[in-house]
Design brief:
This protein has 301 residues and is of the alpha/beta class. The protein is built from 11 helices and 10 strands. The chain has a 10-stranded mixed sheet, with helices on both faces. Helix 1 links the parallel strand 1 and strand 2.
């Protein structure tokens, strides 16, 4: 089996979470044990997770319902209409935070948490059981070190995963993880699969259950956003970078160990005096290698 993994997702927000979930399921290097919904109406998000796992043929993976923070629903309502999460063939945990704790504490080997959302669930888990940090490696899509969303005007941005719950992000950053790896906007904001890779994925959507689930989500997401279906490329796939890091390590990134702090605006700053040292990916070496990896794994190669 691969590395034991927990994914914390705000799926049914941006579409990159669906791609990240599919990629994690397609990687034999990763033993996905639990997927937890985060932010807003977490029951709705958990229904999306449950249906995705069923479509992908992976009901061996448990679903956790994270902390509800509002009644807001962003997308995927049509896709899960009529879907009954209580009928999910695998395990469903009403208390997703406790499920995170139990999965870690009951594991006979260290667990990797892939944090793809604001850190509400993870901060709550640390509050209940601080010992989880010493048993885990954390890989988080968060922050902006040197550059953010722009390719024309190079500047750092306030990242949503941090800004949405700054106290939670600070608590998570301060915890004594076995290792903490940060995938900032520098390496996540501009990941778009296109050209032959994307056409290869489209060609198998009817025969590959994981790709089929991703593309069904993509169709629904485009309809919810009144957007034209992309026949040539994906949207930005931020969260897939963290799954890639968990599966193969950091050899394809330029990395720096940097002391990070989070300011009141949600910016992630380097502060040698007060910062927590994190292993940060700041640039890609060969991004085409990443695109090929994602395509090949999703296609079962």
């Amino acid at each position: 089996m691969g590395t034991p993994v927990i994914l914390d997702l705000d799926i049914a927000g941006d579409i990159d979470d669906s791609w990240a979930l599919g990629l994690a399921l397609a990687c034999p290097d990763l033993d996905v044990r639990l997927v937890v919904s985060c932010l807003d109406d977490t029951t709705h998000r958990a229904r999306v997770i449950g249906k995705f796992l069923e479509k992908a043929g992976r009901t061996d993976v448990a679903v956790g319902i994270g902390l509800r923070t509002s009644d807001r629903i962003y997308s995927m309502t049509d896709w899960v209409e009529g879907y009954d999460l209580s009928a999910y063939p695998g395990k469903v945990y009403a208390d997703g935070v406790q499920a995170i704790i139990d999965t870690i504490m009951e594991s006979g080997e260290p667990v990797t948490i892939i944090e793809e959302a604001p850190m509400t669930n993870l901060a709550a888990a640390l509050e209940r059981e601080p010992r989880i940090a010493e048993r885990c490696t954390l890989i988080a899509t968060m922050g902006s070190i040197y550059n953010g969303h722009s390719l024309e005007d190079i500047h750092k941005d306030s990242d949503y995963n941090v800004r949405a719950n700054i106290p939670a992000a600070r608590k998570v950053l301060a915890a004594p993880w076995k290792q903490i790896t940060v995938l900032p906007l520098d390496v996540t904001a501009h990941l778009v699969i296109g050209d032959d890779n994307y056409q290869k994925l489209l060609a198998v959507r009817g025969s590959n259950p994981i790709v089929g689930a991703i593309m069904e989500n993509f169709d629904c997401w485009m309809a919810d956003h009144n957007a034209t279906y992309y026949k040539t490329h994906s949207t930005a796939l931020y969260d897939t970078a963290a799954v890639y890091m968990a599966a193969v390590g950091d050899f394809n990134f330029i990395t720096e160990d940097l002391p990070l702090v989070i300011d009141d605006g949600g910016y992630t700053n380097v502060d040698p005096a007060a910062g927590r040292t994190c292993h940060c990916a700041v640039y890609w070496r060969y991004v085409d290698m990443f695109y090929k990896f994602v395509t090949d794994r999703l296609c079962g190669e």
